[in-house]
Design brief:
- The structure is a single chain.
- This protein has a single domain, classed as TIM Barrel.
- The protein has 11 helices and 10 strands.
- It has an 8-stranded parallel beta barrel, surrounded by 6 helices. A two-stranded antiparallel sheet has the order 3-4.
- Helix 7 links the parallel strand 8 and strand 9.
Length: 318
């Protein structure tokens, strides 16, 4: 198994990587395999698998009160990772999030992943749960991704939360973190957001993958600001093609990003869902080609478990 940072440092030409959303609980594992199989033609050196914290719902009781229910909507990270490892010869980068877990729970998950032979982790804070305006950590949980990165590096040194563990086995995790070319929505400004990112790197992050964007100049400006701030680790752009007209409204609300007016206009002029799909695919293809011309080491594609447009884009770009 290879570390992402070693792959980035050893590859002589840029490559594509992909991010998958686990299927909903109750789905056949074949649906997961079906999302991955079309991507294997590109020989990705690794595939990212997202993690979704439990959701909260409030159920109405007969007496008019409500009961708070915590529901798990998708299979767990360990099960997903194990299923992919059994089926495909590809390195896996599971996402580990701060949200919904105590430090002890997080450490246990990392130990389990290490036992599975995983050497790459994407360390994320995670989003607020439904009903919360802002992220709130669990009791004895991490409030920031930089703290999670710090724990991973402690495990890499054989240091565990339990002080009675002596000469503990050192893990060997490579750590990726998220960057935001258009600023994280909770940051006061771009400068403070870059400093937050720098703290994650100083805690031990090996590389950065960005949030999706639709204007490459935002990415180039972001990279320049990172370098000026002293961040030297590789920065990988993250892209997602628009596939439906509804995403013009949904993506900015969900991910706090801008969509260029030129793209919005092209999408609204499209005469059919198929035409919208093609506009989004062509825009992402041009983004990919421009990024490759500017020397990015890799491009990370957010597939959302749907890969037809991704395959078209990679075939035309690489």
């Amino acid at each position: 198994m290879s570390k992402v940072i070693d792959i980035l440092n050893s590859k002589s030409s840029p490559f594509a990587t992909f991010e998958l959303v686990p299927p909903l609980k109750g789905s056949d594992v074949e649906k997961l395999y079906g999302s991955i199989e079309p991507l294997m033609q590109f020989c990705p050196p690794y595939i990212n698998v997202t993690c979704h914290r439990d959701e909260v719902e409030y159920c109405l009781n007969e007496d008019g009160t409500y009961t708070r229910m915590t529901l798990s909507k998708r299979p767990g990270t360990i099960a997903i990772v194990a299923a992919i490892k059994m089926k495909f010869e590809v390195d896996i980068v599971p996402h580990v999030i701060c949200g919904g877990a105590s430090r002890t729970m997080t450490e246990s998950e990392l130990i389990d992943l290490h036992f599975l032979g995983i050497h790459n982790i994407m360390a994320l804070r995670g989003d607020a749960v439904t009903g919360q305006r802002y992220f709130q950590p669990e009791p004895d949980g991490f409030a920031h991704a930089s703290e999670l990165v710090g724990m991973i590096q402690q495990l890499n040194r054989g240091q565990y939360l339990d002080p009675t563990v002596r000469n503990g086995l050192s893990t060997d995790f490579c750590v990726g973190v998220a960057g935001y070319p258009e600023k994280h929505y909770e940051a006061a400004n771009m400068e403070s957001d870059i400093q937050n990112l720098k703290r994650k790197v100083e805690a031990g992050a090996d590389y950065i993958i960005t949030q999706m964007f639709f204007d490459n100049q935002r990415f180039y400006d972001f990279v320049r600001q990172c370098r000026e701030a002293g961040i030297t680790v590789p920065i990988i752009p993250g892209l997602k093609p628009i596939s439906t007209l509804r995403q013009i409204d949904l993506l900015p609300r969900s991910f706090h990003i801008d969509i260029p007016q030129e793209l919005v206009s092209e999408l609204r002029r499209a005469q059919s869902p198929e035409a919208v799909y093609q506009v989004g695919t062509e825009w992402c293809t041009e983004q990919s080609r421009d990024l490759l011309a500017h020397g990015v080491p890799a491009i990370h594609y957010y597939t959302m478990a749907k890969t037809n447009n991704i395959c078209q884009i990679v075939n035309k770009s690489f």
